[in-house]
């Protein structure tokens, strides 16, 4: 592969994955909610979890494993059911937590029990079980990737996808950890958690029915 082609592939990856990472969805909602309801040092786990999961998706795309999902539709259907069920679980858990929430002296994360690694695991699972992420990766590799995919290009692609995802979710973390956002969340914790839980539930139902 000549250098010009290599640069062209990287440019396509950056353009396509920047749009994909910034598209509102379960990953974005999870990071925003983590930033609102936890101290930044804990919510940072969600940023890491999503970024690592995206790099794994990139590896799956480069290795051709995603083509198996296209070849065997029942496998993709199974992924949708699993992903939708997990989003439903997150949504119902959020709604139940909001329902049982009682007004009390508030501090970020005081009404929750999630740790840094719990948020990391939750974010990674959400991203890995999210079929939309897989579809974005399929689109990326079908549009931007050459037939003679090299190991070095695979590594660069995974790294770029991870960095772009990390940067965007870090922006979300800093933005929704600011005093203004925290004040709003303190005033409307139950309503915001109800809304977030509802979004996760709708995402889960949409994934399972699509």
Provide the number of structural domains: 1
Distance between termini? 38 Å
Q: How many beta-strand runs?
A: 0
* Helical/strand content category: mainly alpha
* Helix coverage percent: over 70%
Enumerate how many helices there are, as a single number.
10
What's the gyration radius in Å?
Answer: 18 Å
Q: Give the H and E element order.
A: HHHHHHHHHH
Low-confidence stretches: 104-111
- Report on the biggest sheet: none
Give the oligomeric state of the chains in this entry, treating copies of one chain as homo and distinct chains as hetero. Answer: single chain
pLDDT averaged over residues: 82
Question: Strand content of the residues, in percent?
Answer: under 5%
General form: globular
Pfam family, one: LysE
Organism: Photobacterium aquae
Subcellular location: Cell membrane
GO molecular function: amino acid transmembrane transporter activity
